[in-house]
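#struct-queue
[09:14] JT: dropping the first one here, sequence first, then the structure tokens:
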Amino acid sequence: MTNHVPSSVSVQGLQETLDALDKKLGSAQVVKISKQALKLTGKYMETEIKKAVETYRDTGATVNELVVSTPRAKSGTVTVKVGWDGKGSDQRYRLVHLNEFGYTPHGIYANHANAVDSKGFAFYKPGGFGKIRQAYDAARQPSLELARVELRKLVN
């Protein structure tokens, strides 16, 4: 079983734990255990992202519509997704990216905060600008460590 971890993050012992489990229990059991560990890790990430978007809360829809997927195995990799799925009544998935990345009045893409669109309008940087990325970056290493610890607990 492979475990894809972003190259900027490394948790000592995570891959070794998965490899040892694979030899000891077999791939099917490792996938089952990995899903259990990722369920907890997904909940942790959800909590951290909710705290981040709570800082610019208005109606609460952005916080309330955040979802965690069921862990799924595909091509030997088990994943869980945290985000907005668009099934909520307020359809926050359509607006989250504007808070996260900013915008211009005419919808012109700007890749930096000092950008000006073709009509001379400045780039808007809302209160939630970059909050999700900051929360993700801060929680990434602890969530991987949580997954490693949970895997070890599930095996023992």
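[09:21] JT: and here's the second one, same format:
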Amino acid sequence: MNDDAMAFLDVPVLFGRFLVLNDILGEADIAQAARVQKELNAHPLFRLIEQGTLTIEDVTRARAYQWKHMATFCEAVDALGILALDDCTTAMKVLARQNIPLGEVLVRQGKMTPQALADALEKHRQSWKSNRADVFERT
């Protein structure tokens, strides 16, 4: 088979899939934890409202501006004088880094111990490094 056509297989396996493939957890456990993770990692706009940085009205006005001017959300709040562009961009980046990882959900749900998580993460890292080395050797 064409190596280029199969290059996508060289992409590292996501952690949840890694846990299933290595019989550490079942698919149902991963799927349920991923649903919880998705809900906990609410869209940054909701989190800005929760923090009191924006109001629902601010978001509604900014979204309308976005559609009308085909602008990013941060450009919209800046243009409307709601929040400075740099402040918005920084807030979005900070919120993106605050997402709860799947492993933390699994530990808090009691599906893994912290030590089992640490061991699995290390195995996943080693697997990823090994796969990367294989890719570079073939090129």
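[09:30] RK: nice, looked through the second one.
[09:31] RK: The CA atoms of residues 53 and 83 lie 9 Å apart.
[09:31] JT: good to know. Confidence is low (pLDDT under 50) at residues 1-10.
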